[in-house]
Amino acid sequence: MTSPVSKLLLMALCLVLCGCATQRTYTQKGVPLDPSASAIIMCDSENTHKFLNGLNKKVFIARIDGKSTFTVKGALTDTDPYAEAAYVSPGRHYLDLKYSHYNSYAWGRVWFDAEAGGSYIVRRRISGYSVIFWVEDMETGKVVGGIPGGEPPLGDRPKAPTRL
Description:
Layout: H1 4-19, E1 25-27, E2 39-43, E3 58-64, E4 67-68, H2 72-77, E5 85-88, E6 91-101, E7 104-114, E8 119-127, E9 130-137, E10 145-146
């Protein structure tokens, strides 16, 4: 029989080892992991601080098409329980995003059109007290999405936003 102290030590060791894991990746239900049949979306985060995670400027994907990416492991081992990357099916998707820095948070929503085999990145820019999100194709750097409400019909590619 093991003592309560050894159980606590084992649990603490497991939590420490889980904290050393790489970024959390979410896979949409029914999406094959074959890179040619799915697309990957990643977040533009700065992860330079290992011990003081709150100093990192991170973007998380909280929801994809209304489905939460929450994980208990993320809640226990990081500053946020949401995914930083996701595999999605080809087509239009809506992402609920969370930006985290220090004790400040910002939420946003974007849409983007994923193509099979594509790699995309959620970019962010701080402007005053606002955080602006958009999605780019990682190969071309072209904007492939925007703010919901201004989507073109499926099949049309969006125009690049005007720079301020």
